[in-house]
Design brief:
2 copies of one chain form a homodimer. Chain A is built from 9 helices and 4 strands, in the order E-H-E-H-E-E-H-H-H-H-H-H-H. Chain A is about 55% helix and about 10% strand. The first copy, chain A, has a 4-stranded mixed beta sheet. By secondary structure, chain A is of the alpha+beta class. The interface between A and B is large, with 46 and 47 residues.
Chain lengths: ~240, ~240
């Protein structure tokens, strides 16, 4: 049966939106990709405000055959909605209720706990590098203090937590976060996990040594064909306006 | 039928956990309340680390008659789980799929977008008041810069967005965020909305004048019997170790 619903993804470069494209591909759904580029201050451009009042990315717009339009924002909710409505072959169906609950939990955890810590660190990092902030030791020292007192220890706690879950999964012979197949949990976690082991290393220089099971998880994740395909698809738009 | 599942709520004073108690009361569920008090640095105490590795509150523990224990964290997920599993009378059942989706969206939005901005502002506010940060104008100026550049405008955008939704609901004769009855959306939003109009006013002094529809929503929400009952229930434990 040809896909009846028309899907548009509003996508900002260097954003959490990659994950949604990955999931749409895994679900064999067709979609139109609308691309937006960051401003020189690393923010979303004004055009995204016309798509959704919060000017966020990703935004998924689904047009039903009867003309009804459903607009989805919040990555965790988008993943939940797509899995609930479009996994017609049960590719992402979990083996039991516990695993299914665990996937849903990760959809909330990733965006509600892990990602805000990384955003807080990024905002503080930018505070020492981007006008109108002075690139001097005073701003640096205050930001360092805030990071040392709050964001650093909180991130550490989360890395340890995730490392423990990855260890338990590896011990069971699974390279995924829940059960033993790719799930929404891996897809939602991919963005922060990749950023922790690439751009995030300046925040925590010994992340690979201290959290080897999470690093192994990251390595396996980065070899997922679906993720590699998406990376390739969007590579030509991934020009960062800032060296962070 | 007497309630078969045993429910324990691990609750930190001055935290997002009030909402879970409110929902449990609305669902007529019995639960045991375990209370934890904040440290003098306004953080969760170490004992919460023994409940869950992230040391978070709220944590809900459900023990099934067969001994299975389900541990729930992340407020959005806890609300989703409780509504999916314990709304036996359909008290929170929505009128249609659109409203049901909108409630689920708010469970992600509140914790994934709105609350992290308030946490970021709180962390920065503490950075100028709590040791080891210096309570001086340098830290204050840097923090003010970060707030002016990121947290302030983002919060403004969200307040405008929520004010618009409240306005549309009020125009339809509803005092709630979705449909025309109390839902998980109101319960999850209650904590940040209350804090915006009480503790948050220093961040945005004209919040009442600029966002009158959201203020009206807040006023109605604060008159909800269930919320007032919870406030009364926990009032004796609500001692803040800090004047913020």
């Amino acid at each position: 049966m040809p896909q009846e619903d028309k899907i548009v993804v509003h996508w900002l470069n260097f954003s959490r939106a990659q994950r949604i494209i990955w999931l749409l591909d895994e679900l064999n759904l067709s979609y139109e990709l609308k691309i937006y580029e960051r401003t020189k201050e690393y923010r979303a451009p004004k055009e995204l405000d016309e798509v959704h009042p919060l000017g966020k990315s990703p935004v998924v717009e689904i047009t039903k055959p009867d003309g009804e339009v459903i607009q989805l924002v919040e990555s965790g909710w988008i993943v939940q909605y797509l899995l609930e409505n479009y996994d017609v072959d049960g590719k992402f169906k979990q083996a039991n209720a516990q695993d299914s609950n665990q996937v849903n939990y990760f959809l909330h955890y990733t965006e509600g706990t892990l990602q805000p810590l990384l955003v807080g660190l990024l905002v503080n990092q930018m505070a020492t590098k981007v006008p109108p902030f002075p690139a001097n030791w005073i701003a640096g020292a205050v930001v360092k203090g805030i990071n040392a007192k709050y964001y650093g220890p909180e991130l550490e706690k989360n890395l340890k937590y995730l490392n423990g879950i990855a260890a338990a999964q590896h011990a069971k012979g699974s390279k995924y976060m829940v059960g033993n197949k790719l799930s929404g949990a891996d897809i939602i976690l991919s963005f922060p996990i990749v950023s922790i082991f690439t751009t995030g290393r300046s925040v925590h220089p010994t992340v690979i040594q201290e959290f080897p099971e999470l690093y192994k998880y990251y390595q396996n994740l980065s070899q997922e064909k679906g993720l590699k395909d998406v990376d390739e698809k969007v590579a030509k738009h991934e020009r960062s306006p800032l060296k962070l």
